[in-house]
Amino acid sequence: MSEVADRIKEIIKPENLVYAKSPVLNDDIMHYCPGCSHGVVHRLIAEVIEEMGIQEQTIGISPVGCAVFAYNYIDIDWQEAAHGRAPAVATGIKRVMPDKYVFTYQGDGDLAAIGTAETFHAVNRGENIVMIFINNAIYGMTGGQMAPTTLVGQVTATTPNGRDVDLNGYPLRITELLAQLPGAAFVTRQSVQNPAAVRKTKKAIRKAFEIQAMKKGTAFVEVVSTCSSGWKLSPVESNKWMEENMFPQYPLGDLKDSSRADADLYRIKG
Amino acid sequence: MGELRLMKGNEVIAEAAIRCGCDAYFGYPITPQSEIMETLMAHRPWEESGMVVLQAESEIASIHMVYGAAGSGKRVMTSSSSPGISLMAEGISYMAGAELPCVIVNVQRGGPGLGTIQPSQADYNQATKGGGHGDYSLIVLAPASVQEMHDFVILGFELAFKYLTPVMILADGVIGQLMEKVELIDQRPRWTNEQVAEISGNWATIGKSASRKKHIITSLELDSSIMEQNNIRLQEKYSLIRSQEVRYEAISCDDAEYIIVAFGSSARICQKTVQIARKKGVKVGLIRPITLFPFPEKIIAEYAAKVKGFLSVEFNAGQMVNDIRLAVNGKTKVEYFGRMGGIVPTPDEVETALEQKLLRG
Amino acid sequence: MAKVRGAVVVDTEVCKGCNLCVVACPTQTLALNRNVNNKGYHYSYMENPENCTGCTNCAAVCPDSCITVYRAKFEN
Asked: Considering only CB atoms, which chain A residues are within 8 Å of B218?
């Protein structure tokens, strides 16, 4: 036993460090529930900011929803937006400070329900911003009500018998719609339920920030996520439920990877 | 002497914004103020100074773009008319809560609802009592001339940054569409990044340097004891504004037995009424509140002890009259006269109302 | 022959016992402790430390960034 303990002591030395929390993350304990995808995505954003060396040039916009307090965790300047208005706030910031890195961090209710207009028009203008979209198919902060992305049959606090298309309409695949807009440069859908997925999502977020630097148009990263509390499952069960139910409706992968469209395609003849 | 021009009220808002070094304008078209954005777009100030002019997808988006840019320490403005201001109420409340400076122009039209595109002053209560949710006030400036449309853009930015609060220019369709001579200020440069850092560097989100803590622009605070302190701080700011920033014009009040109180274009009509009444031998004066918040309650209270009555003349159903009554506090009679729905009363009509409601009443 | 050995350090007061690292660990190094932290969570710990290769999978999926990973090569 002591041999093992000695071995561990030998391994745990600064020169052997292979992973530690990014200094761009604050030490505050996150308010999220155990297993919440928000924490992972926050960490990935912080790591990208650290690796790109842009902590002093980045301004985040937090939404209304569980991630409203994102500003407590990532050590950059932040603005907290009204519900759904983060893309408009980001537009205001980016237009007056075009050389800064500006990103929004929004949930499905914020981005795809109350803020649909702001989302569409920011992307359609090709604002040089990054938009991070956490889609967990439920309203977490207000206690598990139906989201625009709630699946048909999914039970929530406001769809106690499951989402009914006759009553509630269909799950909104907003990311597919946004990929059609000429202002979008990079539109992708990722997840964070296992190490490989996490690494892919981090690459996508990094790419999104690099696209912003190149001023190629809007970079949009959806992360299909879990909400254990809202779904009333354990974090591990939530990941399984997500893979079985969310992924068929919200398939992973890049939906657009180019740059915003050439204006001449849309120009009048004379 | 600055450059003299004959200009429309709405156009001069745009001209003054460019000349005073405004950094950005975000707006959405609505009658009767669309010339503001049209004039800005025609001037293309982004080519000269880098000033941003952007047509947003809605008034809601406009005000939140203003929020974002103002949070970056920039001098930002928007403009709209009554229904558009209702849509902006959310963002205005957030800006008051987050203590962000900006200038908002409301060229009022008649309501409620879609109402009419004709001039009105029916947004007095909305403007002076906050307009959105929560305990907050805006500084509200009421221009009565094209010159004041110009001057209040400049004054508005000064006050907005002095107190870190949104400032509203509450104009109406008459002043917006009126053409008058105006003296323009010379072009001033926009603030440099260094100036922004010097002026707003202790709160603005301009990028967190290694030497300071992060800045967070927010109105959110879930700890009730801190939230109460935030509210108390706001109220102290409004008290300071009440004590420091009251502006009004008093015309022929020294010997007056009756005083008309009117703001904006209503005050111009009432100025003629004062002349008509005085020709008939009735000693009438006019108090024109220039700041509707802070309201010139002290001067009205002082005259309350001397005059036989006040007549509030408004293009609405009687909104400012309540603030006059509060200031007068029962010491003398306070009556209201006004027209609604986009009707602008004539000076004679006001004079008749004065006789009926105060002299004979 | 050189062998890569790892070790993880869990900030037990930050850990919320979500179990995602335990599932993500390919070598069954981690488990949730029977004991709880000050918030009442069964925190993650190295139940089988000799298995750890320092692959960082646990840290990758950790929502609370409470895992630090070390790795070293040994000759025996």
From this structure: 71, 78-80
